[in-house]
């Protein structure tokens, strides 16, 4: 195709704009990384720009020795693993009947679920319900009240519905039960979509915040995001030493930068896998539904 | 045929037969149904405390019914108007600037011919969606602080430093820009799916007719995206006043309450922390009613030109 002069100008502009905007997506994290490896004086005098100035690992040593931070990290790992497994179990078990051609309650149940997407319960009755169930200060409050993500469940259901019906029929002739079809045929064929949805759930659990704000009052049970928030609002606790009494190679600026990254790095590590899946077609089709 | 007739006449026995044959399906879906009842429908029904003087130790059964008293109370209450105005203004900005952003970005992605460049740029744009608002809030505070990189640039340009997060006039812009930054890339996915479904023959025919890229975009790409845009717009309208607790909570400081305190952050403070359950539920219910009313109105308008949500 022949490009006109206008096309060429536009193309150039478009590349410059997109690359510049994409750079801003990564820039803040890289900047914080540079600050976290810089000396406190350099960080506070605005000398750091993408590269550490007066390189030091003191900040990271201090952050990585913080037992409370690791405890919150452990809690978050725990709810991420347990929550993702339970969420996948609940979602698959709900999606399969809703994709099954012989399940009579398919339409009413589906309607009932979609209604909850339009009518969201206000915060307070939701809070009171979970509290009535005795889940205050329990890690269950971070898992059960959101165990099925309706969107995620519908992605799985749409994928199941797209599997060829002949598979069902031939399996049934071979004596396979409904459960057998799910576990021996559907699930092995759905690995990519199950992986994608698992990663969505895992990221959701890793980033759990508002439920922790509502339900977890005991600081010893705070997940990582809550702990991070507490440290960001009162960074002196993060320092945990009297900055005036000694000569330290870190300060609250560098500590905050490192702590933000501490809570982010696992996401950045799984991100390449994450995006490999969700960009693929299987996801796109189901989102349209 | 005979069996079908029998089924028509006795639906109960049809369900019973279905249950007997496929009992495992009913068993499988039971936990899911319980989840939706306990954590979605029960709290929805619990909204009735908006019409009560709800006392936690008396419960819904024992608390006094007060009719619309709570609604009268919130409408006579100055704080409510402040919070409602903040919510509506920020929501309006989000709609005007935040809603078109992923549409425009998807169109720009679509013009990138080098697949490798496209994939690279896209994967950077999707990244912030996966960061929590605590992290993004922390990033925003750090970059905009007096030691932050933005003020470093200002100093370098010879400008005075600005404490962005403490000044009321910047708060709403920061909310809108940070929301776009976080989710604009993610938002393109659904539009790119719509674009991917366009028949390439349409473009070829347009080229034959002498249409340039701009005209192809305006007359083929955008019209094909329109149904998706409309559906997303309607869903957006239905959640118009629900800005998201996480974002505002993590950007708000007492210095910016007057412009940034929204319904959700207010309800959290007055309801969860101070125990004013009935009044805050009333505010939440009011928010839902406005959302649904807007959805209903815009859906009617949409049906006149295109398909609505229902």
Characterization of this structure:
The complex is a heterodimer of chains A (289) and B (310). In chain A, helix 3 crosses helix 14 and helix 4 crosses helix 12. Chain A is globular. Chain A has 289 residues and is mainly alpha-helical. Chain B folds into two domains: 64 residues, no CATH class; 233 residues, MetI-like (MetI-like fold), CATH 1.10.3720.10. In chain B, helix 5 crosses helix 17, helix 6 packs across helix 11 and helix 11 crosses helix 13. The chains are: A mainly alpha (289), B mainly alpha (310). At the A-B interface, helix 1, helix 4, helix 5, helix 6 and helix 9 of A face helix 2, helix 3, helix 8, helix 9 and helix 10 of B.
Q: Could you name the CATH topology of the largest domain in chain B?
A: MetI-like fold
Question: What level of helicity do the residues of chain B show?
Answer: over 70%
CATH C-level class of the largest domain in chain B: Mainly Alpha
User: Which percent range fits the helix content of chain A?
Assistant: over 70%
- Average pLDDT confidence of chain A is 90
Task: Give the biggest beta sheet of chain B.
Answer: 2 strands, antiparallel
Q: Indicate the proportion of strand residues of chain B.
A: under 5%
Count of individual beta strands of chain A: 0
Q: CATH class of one domain in chain A, anyone?
A: Mainly Alpha
CATH superfamily of one domain in chain A: MetI-like
Structural class of chain A: mainly alpha
Main location (chain B): membrane
Membrane topology (chain B): Multi-pass membrane protein
Keywords (chain B): Cell membrane, Membrane, Transmembrane, Transmembrane helix, Transport
InterPro entries (chain B): MetI-like (IPR000515), MetI-like_sf (IPR035906), UgpAE/MalFG_permease (IPR050809)
């Amino acid at each position: 195709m022949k490009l006109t002069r206008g096309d060429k100008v536009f193309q150039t502009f478009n590349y410059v704009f997109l690359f510049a905007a994409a750079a801003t997506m990564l820039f803040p994290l890289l900047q914080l990384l540079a600050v976290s490896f810089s000396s406190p004086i350099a960080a506070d005098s605005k000398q750091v720009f993408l590269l550490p100035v007066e390189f030091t690992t003191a900040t990271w040593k201090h952050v990585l020795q913080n037992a409370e931070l690791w405890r919150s990290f452990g809690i978050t790992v725990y709810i991420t693993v347990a929550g993702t497994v339970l969420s996948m179990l609940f979602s698959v078990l709900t999606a399969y009947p809703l994709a099954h051609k012989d399940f009579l309650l398919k339409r009413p149940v589906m309607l009932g679920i979609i209604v909850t997407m339009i009518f969201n319960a206000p915060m307070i009755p939701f809070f009171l319900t979970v509290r009535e169930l005795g889940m205050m200060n329990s890690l269950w409050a971070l898992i059960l009240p959101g165990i099925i993500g309706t969107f995620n469940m519908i992605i799985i259901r749409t994928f199941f519905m797209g599997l060829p019906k002949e598979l069902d029929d031939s399996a049934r002739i071979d004596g396979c039960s409904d459960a057998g079809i799910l576990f021996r045929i559907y699930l092995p064929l759905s690995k990519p979509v199950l992986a994608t949805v698992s990663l969505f759930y895992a990221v959701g659990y890793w980033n759990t915040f508002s439920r922790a704000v509502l339900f977890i009052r005991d600081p010893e049970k705070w997940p990582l995001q809550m702990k991070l928030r507490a440290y960001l609002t009162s960074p002196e606790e993060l320092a945990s030493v009297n900055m005036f009494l000694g000569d330290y190679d870190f300060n609250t600026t560098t500590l905050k930068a490192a702590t933000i990254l501490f809570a982010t790095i696992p996401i950045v590590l799984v991100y390449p896998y994450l995006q490999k899946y969700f960009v693929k077609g299987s996801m796109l089709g189901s989102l349209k539904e | 045929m005979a069996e079908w007739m029998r089924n028509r006449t006795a639906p109960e026995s049809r369900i019973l037969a279905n249950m007997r044959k496929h009992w495992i399906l009913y068993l499988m879906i039971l936990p899911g149904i319980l989840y939706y009842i306990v954590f979605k429908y029960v709290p929805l029904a619990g909204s009735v405390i908006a019409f009560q003087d709800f006392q936690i130790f008396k419960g819904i059964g024992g608390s006094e019914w007060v009719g619309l008293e709570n609604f009268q109370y919130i409408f006579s209450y100055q704080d409510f108007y402040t919070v409602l105005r903040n919510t509506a203004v920020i929501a309006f900005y989000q709609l005007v600037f935040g809603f078109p952003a992923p549409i425009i970005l998807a169109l720009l992605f679509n013009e990138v011919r080098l697949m490798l460049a496209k994939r690279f740029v896209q994967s950077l744009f999707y990244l912030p969606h996966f960061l929590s608002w605590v992290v993004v809030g922390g990033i925003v505070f750090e970059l905009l602080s007096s030691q932050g990189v933005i003020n470093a640039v200002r100093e370098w340009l010879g400008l005075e430093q600005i404490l962005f997060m403490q000044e009321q006039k910047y708060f709403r812009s920061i909310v809108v820009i940070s929301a776009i930054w976080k989710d604009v890339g993610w938002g393109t996915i659904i539009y790119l799916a719509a674009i991917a479904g366009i028949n390439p023959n349409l473009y070829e025919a347009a080229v034959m007719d002498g249409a340039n890229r701009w005209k192809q975009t305006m007359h083929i790409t955008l019209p094909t995206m329109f149904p998706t845009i409309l559906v997303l717009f309607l869903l957006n309208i239905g959640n118009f006043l629900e800005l998201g607790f996480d974002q505002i909570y993590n950007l708000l400081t007492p210095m910016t309450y007057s412009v940034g305190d929204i319904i959700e952050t207010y309800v959290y403070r007055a309801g969860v922390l101070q125990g004013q359950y009935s009044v805050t539920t009333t505010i939440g219910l009011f928010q839902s009613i406005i959302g649904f009313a807007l959805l209903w109105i815009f859906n009617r308008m949409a049906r006149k030109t295109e398909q609505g949500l229902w």
